[in-house]
Amino acid sequence: MIAGTAAIAAPAFAQSSVTLYGIVDDSIVYQNSQTNLARSTPGRSNVKMASGIWAGSRFGLKGAEDLGGGNKAIFQLESGFDINSGGQQFTNAMFGRQAWVGLTNANYGTLTLGRQYTSYYTLLSPYSPTNWLTGYFGAHPGDIDNMDTIYRANNSVVYTSPKLYGFTVSGSYSFAGVPGSVYQGSAWSAAVQYAQGPVGMTVAFERFNNAANGGGIYSGSSAVAARSSLAGRPGSVRPRRTRRSRGCASSPKTMCRS
């Protein structure tokens, strides 16, 4: 067995910093019609409290350790929660929003390992007019291929280059972790961003192998998108997705596409 590890461990004299941060977002919502999709009865109005309307409630720790020579060890742990119930945003994942460790250098870029945002999302999101990754242009009912709002990937390695002449390049790969298969459950993405003065744009590609959601299993789910901005105003979004279905759930509510 061959294994590599990454951890933050430095002598006491090294310069280090740890920041505690968070967002608490709560609201009272009036909904004029609410019903269960499984019922045929008309909906009724409801007044309720809702967490994370503008931004998901969270708390986290992020830190850096100066290793000398322009190198820094970095980490981030971020947990999402429901302010009204105290429950975790992600079941069985205390730090479901982010949990990674890595190295960064101003001249060579940043390499991180763990559960983290994909390159596709990281470089596209600055131009998003909505909280959803592809906005209303890329959304589709049920998110059955698990690609509407995928921001983070488990078991992932992400490299992001330093900015050079306005260009930034990033690539990420998520290991499958399935015995006997390096393909099933793996994912990768790549993105190129140009941002200089008032002009900015990103072109990105993302692929999930055997992604499963809502009972559907997809042998290949991919997305290509481009975004731009001028003087800080978001431009057009051009997402394009392809899917190949291997299996479908028996539930009549699960749509399966070939």
Protein described:
With 258 residues, this protein is mostly beta strands. The chain folds into two domains: 15-109, no CATH class; 117-224, no CATH class. It is 4% helix and 50% strand. The strands form two sheets. Strands 1, 4, 5, 6, 7, 8, 9, 10, 11, 12, 13, 14 and 15 form a 13-stranded antiparallel β-sheet that branches. The protein is globular. It starts with 15 loop residues before the first strand and ends in an 11-residue tail after the last strand.
Task: Indicate the topology.
Blueprint: E1 16-23, E2 26-34, E3 44-51, E4 58-68, E5 71-80, E6 98-105, E7 109-117, H1 119-124, H2 135-138, E8 152-160, E9 167-174, E10 187-196, E11 199-208, E12 211-213, E13 216-230, E14 233-234, E15 240-247
Antiparallel strand pairs: 1-4, 2-3, 4-5, 5-6, 6-7, 7-8, 8-9, 9-10, 10-11, 11-13, 12-13, 13-14, 13-15
Fraction of residues in β-strands: over 45%
Whole-number count of domains? 2
**Amino- and carboxy-terminal Cα gap:** 39 Å
Q: State Rg.
A: 21 Å
Secondary structural class? mainly beta
Shape: globular
Task: Give the low-pLDDT segments.
Answer: 1-13, 243-258
Biggest beta-sheet profile: 13 strands, antiparallel
Percent in helix: under 10%
| Mean pLDDT level | 76
Would you list the SSEs in sequence order as H and E? EEEEEEEHHEEEEEEEE
User: Helix count?
Assistant: 2
How many beta-strand runs?
15
